[in-house]
Amino acid sequence: VDVKSLFLFFFVPQVLLFACAEDLECVPGFQQKVFYIEKPFQFTEDKLVLNLKFDDCKGNNKLNFEVSNPDFTVDLDGSLVARKNVSEAGRALFVHARSEHAEDMAEIFILEANEKGGALKEILKLEGNLGIPRQKRAILATPILIPENQRPPFPRLVGKVIRSEGTEGVKFRLSGKGVDQDPKGIFRINEMNGDVSVTRTLDREAIANYELEVEVVDMNGKTIDGPVRLDVSVIDQNDNRPMFKEGPYVGHVMEGSATGTTVMRMAAFDADDAGTDNALLRYNILKQTPTKPSPNMFYIDPEKGDIVTVVSPALLDRETMESPKYELVIEAKDMGGMDVGLTGTATATILIDDKNDHPPEFTKKEFQATVKEGVTGVIVNLTVGDRDDPTTGAWRAVYSIINGNPGQSFEIHTNPQTNEGMLSVVKPLDYEISAFHTLLIKVENEDPLIPDIAYGPSSTATVQITVEDVNEGPVFHPNPMAVTKQENIPVGSVVLTVNATDPDTLQHQTIRYSVHKDPAGWLEINPTNGTVGTTAVLDRESPFVQNNVYTALFLAIDSGNPPATGTGTLHITLEDVNDNVPSLYPTLAKVCDDAKDLRVVVLGASDKDLHPNTDPFKFELSKQSGPEKLWRINRLNNTHAQVILLQNLKKANYNIPISVTDSGKPPLTNTTELRLQVCTCKKSKMDCSATDALHISLTLILLSLLSLFCKSFA
């Protein structure tokens, strides 16, 4: 199906329909409002495109035409022609006609060759929208096209609804959005003759299309014909400037990038009709700051908005630029960039990113440092220069010691603020071993160099380190010192002789000794030869002894000026001897005078000494007086025994002498009195208030004295 066939199929009936309408009544405006034409290879200058017929029904006085595309014009006879050779005219043209008595809009759709088949379907689909009936209808409601932003006076006649059967005794009624629905009152219809008017200025960007309904009713309001759809389209005018809404616009490009490298894309928005030149944008660079090394460092694709580099890679050198940041003022212009188009601007910031094309270089080949022996910390800062971006890994330095550090006495780290190399001593140096050190230092970047760049001789440097001699304190050998002694050795016994030497072998100094810390005051030291002796008895059970070890500190002082001091630690491990009697617990027990269980108490024994000078313990009762024995003691295990009453006793306090003997050699015995209270017990209450005198304990004392007296004469 070609365009000609479409025209015969679709538009001829419409022309006939308009002819019928003319027989009924003249309708001011374009007699055909919608056209479809096939896009030629180009529109030739002054060649007829098509004929438009406009009639205001009053002689077309002061008629003039306006075309949406300024490359076209309409002559007074309605001939649409191109002003010049035009290869691209967009998808549609709008022709606005205005005379002294009427105005109207015609729309010309430009179809590609491959759209002809689809166009037929669209035309058939839109028949209802265009007011072209498939069957005879009484109401003819052709689409109305109204330009936006019309100026007063209002109301303005914009269209007409025709009833083929006449209008006598009937009325037209209009409804829909823009009439009796919000926004109300924009359109109205003359009830008697069907004239459609607009009452105010329209804004296509607010509402682009109105779908109204028109019907014919009798004088009582009863519908006779319809409703029929009446479409009102608001024709776009170029009343919106392009806007850049997505800023800020920042792009990055690597230095040395190839010509034509895409940096970023600028995209503006135009609220006008996207299908017209009113929203057809073209981009342009208005200004570049700075203008060096070239005033045209970048180009913007006028249609896509892509910004690309246009200078050679050599000029895109960050280190030689006045500034690595460029600001471009970008203009977007509608109407395809023509002079009549509206414009909007935005600033694009382009940052030239650094790549590692400059190795770091030491500011000098050799650095000097002096450090005292025995001291640690930073001794010298190595300075480097690097032309790359200080905020990137292409500038940040990484240092390493590649020679002269076999003992790992030195380390080097990067100062993050200055990029200097901080060379430190981490293991104290000894002047007597080596008074000079030579290190070879290498510097690199965090980021690798680009392939065609390499580290050169300036990326290494030598550090000469001089060690200064200081008076070092004497050193004890060994330290700490350890010795084992029995506790209770005689006062004046020799514990050991300490040995300290002076590291300053070249100074030939003498050493004197002194006690620095002796918590129990048990020791002394010969100041000349370092012999340590006892001044008191060593006691393993002393609170100054921890885990059988007594610790003392001694000083060795050389004869330097000023003198230097060294400290030595002595650990004396004390061996145990049986010098502590065992102790008994508890020493108080209570029992009821009518108790059925006569097991009074379980006794335990402890000893401060160590095994084998402690348990097993031997428990014994002193001899009991009287015709009957009152209690006995039974051994339970190595450390415990049980006292048992042999009969119930009267309420009283009793003292029972019990002896405990340890297993040491020789053994030690301790006699302790167990105080036994015999109490009255009633209703689970125990009354232990004293009633009887301690006659039994006195008797026992007399018997004990008599026994000792007899033994002395035996």
UniProtKB/TrEMBL annotation:
Top-rank taxon of the source lineage equals: Eukaryota
Q: Where in the cell is it found?
A: Cell membrane; Cytoplasm
Fetch the CDD domains from UniProt: Cadherin_repeat
Q: Could you tell me what this protein is called?
A: Cadherin-13
Which N-terminal residues, if any, form the signal peptide?
Answer: 1-21
The taxonomic lineage of its organism, from the top, reads: Eukaryota, Metazoa, Chordata, Craniata, Vertebrata
BP-aspect Gene Ontology terms: adherens junction organization; calcium-dependent cell-cell adhesion via plasma membrane cell adhesion molecules; cell migration; cell morphogenesis; cell-cell adhesion mediated by cadherin; cell-cell junction assembly; homophilic cell adhesion via plasma membrane adhesion molecules
The entry describes its oligomerization and partners as: By contrast to classical cadherins, homodimerization in trans is not mediated by cadherin EC1 domain strand-swapping, but instead through a homophilic adhesive interface which joins two elongated EC1-EC2 domains through a region near their Ca2+-binding sites to form a tetrahedral, X-like shape.
Q: Which UniProt keywords apply?
A: Calcium, Cell adhesion, Cell membrane, Cleavage on pair of basic residues, Cytoplasm, Glycoprotein, GPI-anchor, Lipoprotein, Membrane, Metal-binding, Repeat, Signal
Q: Locate the Cadherin domain: which residues?
A: 170-244, 245-362, 363-476, 477-584, 583-694
Q: Does the keyword Repeat apply?
A: yes
Alphabetical list of PROSITE patterns matching this protein = CADHERIN_1, CADHERIN_2
Asked if Cytoplasm is a keyword of the record, the answer is yes
Q: What is the predominant subcellular site recorded for this chain?
A: membrane
MF annotations from Gene Ontology: beta-catenin binding; cadherin binding; calcium ion binding
What role does it play?
Answer: Cadherins are calcium-dependent cell adhesion proteins. They preferentially interact with themselves in a homophilic manner in connecting cells; cadherins may thus contribute to the sorting of heterogeneous cell types. May act as a negative regulator of neural cell growth.
